[in-house]
Amino acid sequence: MLTFSKKNKVTAYIGMAVFAVVLAVLPFIMGATLGNTWVRNLDLAMLYIMLALGLNIVVGYAGLLDLGYIAFYAVGAYVYALLNSPHLVPLLAGTGFEWILHMPLLVVLPLAALMAGLFGVLLGSPTLKLRGDYLAIVTLGFGEIVRLFMNNLDRPINITNGPQGVNLIEPVSLFGHKFSQAITVFGVEFRSVHLYYYLFLALALMIIVVSIRLQSSRIGRAWVAIREDEIAAQAMGINTRNVKLLAFAMGASFGGVSGAMFASFQGFVSPESFILMESIVVLAMVVLGGMGHIPGVILGAILLFLTPEVLRDVVNPLQDKLLGERVVNPENLRMLLFGLALIFVMLVRPEGLWPSKRRKAELHEKDEKAAAEAAEKESAHG
Amino acid sequence: MANQANTELLLEISGIHKRFGGLCALNDVALSINKGEIYGLIGPNGAGKTTLFNVLTGLYQPDEGKFTFKGIDLFRQKPNVVVDSGIARTFQNIRLFHNMTALENVMVGRHVRTKAGVIGAVFRNPGTRVEEAAIKARSLELLDYVGIRKHAEEHAKNLSYGDQRRLEIARALATDPQLLALDEPAAGMNGKETDDLKRLMEKIRADGVTILLIEHDVKLMMGLCDRIAVLDYGKKIAEGVPEVVKNDPRVIEAYLGATPD
Ligand SMILES: Nc1ncnc2c1ncn2[C@@H]1O[C@H](COP(=O)(O)OP(=O)(O)OP(=O)(O)O)[C@@H](O)[C@H]1O
Ligand SMILES: [Mg+2]
Prior knowledge:
The complex is a heterodimer. Chain A has helices at about 5-35, 35-60, 70-85, 90, 105-125, 130-150, 190-215, 220-230, 230-235, 240-265, 275-290, 295-325, 330-350, 355-380; strands at about 175, 175-180, 185, 190. By secondary structure, chain A is an all-alpha fold. Chain A folds into 2 domains: about 1-35; about 35-275, no CATH class. Chain B has 10 helices and 10 strands. Chain B is α/β, with parallel strands linked by helices. Chain B is about 40% helix and about 25% strand. The structure holds adenosine-5'-triphosphate and magnesium ion. Adenosine-5'-triphosphate binds near residues 20, 23, 50 and 51 of chain B. Magnesium ion binds near residues 49 and 50 of chain B.
């Protein structure tokens, strides 16, 4: 990708080292200054980064609008939840399949990714011929269907436990250590939230690397080609059906990983966590940050996840102080500001906060065209 | 010229029909193209030339007919199968990937001849790296071949009109075609550009690629094509060497309209 001259290379390495150190100590700084809820928020932000990067494959790279993306997060979460909780024990008792419960993380995580990927293909196949608005509506419906299944698959056989959700999910256990317990290394106490932070950071980095590598690959080029001009892509011999399905599957699998981690982190999942609003939020992260541009998408995820958390922390104390009573519910204010911010950004920077060059060029192209058309009209009238 | 004794059949279609609602855009069209020739396709506007291209490249499914290429049955096959078999095309109204660089455009053309999948992309194993390097090298070579290597890193949409046409040819050549179908490649070009293009097409043919060419520029067609077929209202009304076709009364009538006397 980037090529550095020798001097720049040294600076780049130093920069990277500093960045790594910052990432490593970040939870402790956060914990010390803002309290442990903020370390928790940091963990959740990582999950959203993974989600946003997954959706970025579908929307940003391949240009397929997906409004039901949270369904894959849900699939990952339920795969983990069901395989790592006592919920299925009665159902499996005496069937000889008890062994599927409590498998190690290195098995469950790929399984969650695979399952979500399969659901990605399931969503992708009937929508291959659809574009734009139509695709958005179908994917939106798909997201709702998955949620409704999770809500209702407690009868006749209790698989998902319905609206009550699945409880008592085991925390992650790696190298024989349960993440629910703190661990002390060299006199530093790593609590559960810290351990999860490093795990999520590692997974997020992995997903970033995969995203980067996919982008500059034969497959990544095919995705962009389809986004740019599907007919021309076909005429170049790209099997658009398979390549699109691959985008759905890859994006979904990232969501599945994130969902599985969400389940272990929370210890509890229910269909309520996977509502349409969540799909929209993740999409907003991608669009606001800069579709198809990894740093932009990460920025979008962090901003849109953390801003509401900041508001939650600020609005109530502020109201208490200034008004002596709570007039505005921070939750409502959050949505209001969220909407305003999105409108503002889309008006001022439709390409997103940190767009890729290509995306910028695309939007610029439209401007140029519009300007050219306007000029043409002008001259036609004059 | 190509219609000599030992000609080898490359593409053969017969009885091709394509209807759009009540309109019969292709009506019982048959033609055969020999290996190594430059085969011209002419006809008035709306005659069905582009429609025939779309049928030959799998973008439109014909209603009836036969379509074989190198003896392989390609009737109603998907575009990617057609390209894989060795037919590549350019578009009348340029369809480049505008926001990709010229180089990337050609690299997309290599897709069908390469294999790396997700696993290769993620792990970048030696095989994938070698393949990727080869894709790039071949694509640069092709940019050089059509004479726009210096624009490799520019976005396709920023190229001049003539260079965009050349880029489309390079992208099509990247699929290693045996038959290259060019839909009005000289449209909108000035005299010098057209001459350059003519030389390019001759070079491509000399390098063993058969060419199917739609053009309105009669002078260019007469000087370049081995054989020419004429379409009018979806029907093939004439076929043969340029001299004969040019003087065919049906062709003159199709172009000039029925003369009163
Ligand atoms: N997708 C389509 N749907 C309906 N009608 C079509 C479609 N494509 C082509 N046609 C019609 O088929 C006829 C042949 O069109 P075609 O584009 O093949 O002509 P052409 O010979 O390429 O003309 P030109 O020289 O103007 O490019 C026209 O009447 C056109 O309107
Ligand atoms: Mg045409």
